[in-house]
Amino acid sequence: MLKLAGPVLAKNNTLTRPTLVRLTTNAKHPEPLRKNTALLVKNFDHVKEEILSLQQSRPFAAILIIANPIPDLAELIIRNRSNIYFLNHEFAYLENGDIVRLDPIQPRISVAYRGRAPSNSILLTERCNHLCLMCSQPPKNVDDSWLLEEALELIRMIPPETQNIGITGGEPTIYGDGFIRLISTAKHNLPSTTVDVLTNGRAFHDESYARELAEVKHPALRLGIPLYSDDPVRHNYVVQSTGAFDETLRGILNLKRHGLCVEIRVVIHKETVSRLLQTCQFIARNLLFVDHVALMGLEITGFTRANLDKLWIDPYEYRDVLSDAIAILKAYGIHCSVYNHQLCILNRDIDDVYRKSISDWKNEYLPQCGSCARKSDCGGFFSSQIKYRYSAHISPF
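Now predict its structure.
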């Protein structure tokens, strides 16, 4: 598990607001490009003289020094006009080209983009019109519109060769036209990058909004929309919102009517597993045109912790139901996958649709997994899951 945010020690702190900066390890980075660039130093003693000799007509936005203990900075502070931040060794994974957010008020650092990550996610808002029982990002009723503006700035900074980014929340479509503007910005700045949006899909029950998104003509946009049951009452209960089922279905229909890519996501837990087969049959009979269906394991964080006894079921107990659900989807020719599970507790008949889906920054394995012959194929665990609850049937291959 990687640490993506934390407090830092700041010196020469002249920043007045949270700022996105791209990291460079080149102390001779061209002066005209230093305004939004931070120098990343992993061996201060080795480059100290080079830093002290920097021409500072245009200083770096910041100098980030990974060191423990903190070296003597007296001369550096006197001779250097850059902001200086000290990071502990938990951030030693940072590399040239990564993008971080520096908050001078806390002071605090947050990692916004990692070049080596297979996918990077951008949190667009913490507001939402659902209160899902297993929400991993519990919504907050606050004005966080600054996140949208920062996301627009970040997209302009991300390298165009990036393969994938995710847009998440909260509910991204809460911004209305602002969300459309974000997707348009992604199209023009990252034309070859796949953009995965996690949305409850309800905003698209308005056909004109679905059409407006389609008119952006993003070449690689995918919308992941949850459908937790074929039973409207059950779905509405899981998301804790009246009318959600009907608006979600209308949203999916409108999005596909305008040719957009839609993935249906079903999180499996006690409240959804009893009708998992019926839900897959409903999808196959009524939503055959969707592009992908993902059957997903439970992430034990956020609201899931408070509702754990109500939601938790050992995946080993529903392994046969999961196999049957995948068989239904396959029989109708629907592209499908299994996310967020461990290989050893599933039947082998779904190996071909099993995916390593847990992001590397929140992924861990149990000690007994060390000897497993298939560890490299297995997605492992959410780090939060290891702390709270996991299958009693974990057994290395």
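The first strand starts at residue 5 and ends at 7.
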